[in-house]
Design goal:
Elements (H helix, E strand, L loop, with lengths): L4 H6 L5 E3 L8 H9 L4 E4 L6 H14 L4 E7 L7 H14 L3 E6 L2 H4 L2 H9 L3 E6 L2 H10 L3 E5 L14 H9 L6 E4 L5 H9 L4 E4 L1 H4 L8 H9 L5 E4 L7 E4 L2 H11 L4 H8 L1 H10 L22 H20 L4
Parallel strand pairs: 1-8, 2-3, 3-4, 4-5, 5-6, 6-7, 7-8
Antiparallel strand pairs: 9-10
Helix pairs in contact: 2-3, 3-4, 4-6, 9-15, 12-13
């Protein structure tokens, strides 16, 4: 087995973590990944109230006794406010979840150092998803336990520094002393092995988990990800300073056209609203909304269970590492 600081920190079988996905990372998928030996993800932004969020954590615990992460994304939002961010962090501390993945602004700047102290006292491990070395250094300085090094290949909202996973993982791993997780372009054992070679202690992936049996998304979406290739995503919302990577489709083409001619938020919002995205995932209309996936879709060619996926990835990673080691004379 591949043993890393992440498998040791959380007592898990594989150093494979699920990343946040709005509308998709709910108890069923989260628990399936953790039960399979990885670390599942419960995305806090799926829940509007403290009661809903706390119940989701407890529902996940009924489905698994293994560690899982909660994502808290601290970015501008119409629906999720600063008070939501503080509530999510407070509940994570009270429920003593294994770890949190923070995206966007760091906790200390958005909510205050008292929230970092509160999480530390509760034993919650804090990982910050960053796209730059300078942000990783800040996270280590204020007390985070690990870093997600998120390259431009990732789906969702990569930093507009536009640095690739290969360069970013290497730079951050040689700069900070806390464990680094590679994000962006990860979908199989070969990419996992590559991340470990670059100095990562594990990998995080999200798009790959959409195309699994346990993900509660319409089968049309899963089949579309199997069909699509690595060049079929693009960056949108640069004009809003909220860059995102999405699958190329009819709505994404409209968004790019509006941005190119200087259209503003009021014109763009109906096309990028969370409600629109939620309906697309549920109803399976691949052209109805921007589906935020990464370039790793080019490596997706089947729809396994989470257990089958993680076992295959680990085996392939081990074989790849041995193969590379065999080249040394």
């Amino acid at each position: 087995m591949i043993k890393t600081k992440i498998t040791e920190m959380f007592g898990v079988k594989y150093p494979i973590i699920c990343g946040a996905m709005m509308w998709l990372c709910k108890p069923k998928l989260c628990a399936a990944i953790s039960n399979a030996g990885g670390i599942g993800n419960l995305t806090a932004g799926n829940y509007n109230t403290e009661e809903e969020f706390r119940n989701a954590i407890r529902e996940t615990r009924k489905l698994t006794d293994k560690p899982f992460f909660v994502n808290v994304t601290i970015l501008p939002s119409v629906r999720i406010t600063g008070e939501h961010h503080k509530m999510y962090l407070k509940v994570c501390a009270e429920e003593k979840v294994a770890g949190i993945e923070v995206s966007g602004s760091p906790i200390d700047k958005a909510c205050g150092m008292e929230y970092i102290d509160m999480l530390k006292k509760a034993g919650v491990k804090m990982f910050h998803k960053v796209g730059a070395v300078r942000h990783a250094v800040h996270a280590e300085h204020v007390g985070y336990d690990g870093i997600y090094a998120a390259g431009i290949e990732e789906g969702g909202h990569p930093l507009n520094d536009d640095v690739t996973t290969m360069v970013l993982t290497t730079k951050i791993a040689q700069t900070v002393k806390i464990p680094v997780i590679t994000v962006g372009g990860i979908a199989n054992g070969k990419t996992m092995a590559a991340a470990l070679m670059l100095g990562a202690e594990g990998v995080m992936m999200a798009s790959r988990f959409i195309a699994t049996k346990e993900c509660e998304v319409h089968d049309n979406i899963k089949q579309e990800l199997v069909k699509r290739q690595e060049y079929e995503t693009t960056l949108i919302m640069k004009s809003l300073h909220l860059q995102g990577r999405a699958l190329k489709n009819e709505v994404v083409n409209k968004i790019l056209e509006i941005e190119q001619r200087g259209g503003g938020f009021e014109e763009l919002f109906p096309l990028i609203s969370g409600e629109r995205m939620s309906k697309a995932w549920e109803q399976g209309d691949v052209n109805a909304a921007p589906l935020m996936v990464g370039q790793s879709i080019g490596l997706i060619d089947d729809i396994p269970t989470c257990a089958e996926l993680l076992e295959k990835m680990n085996k392939e990673a081990e074989e790849q590492i041995k193969k590379v080691a065999g080249k040394i004379q």
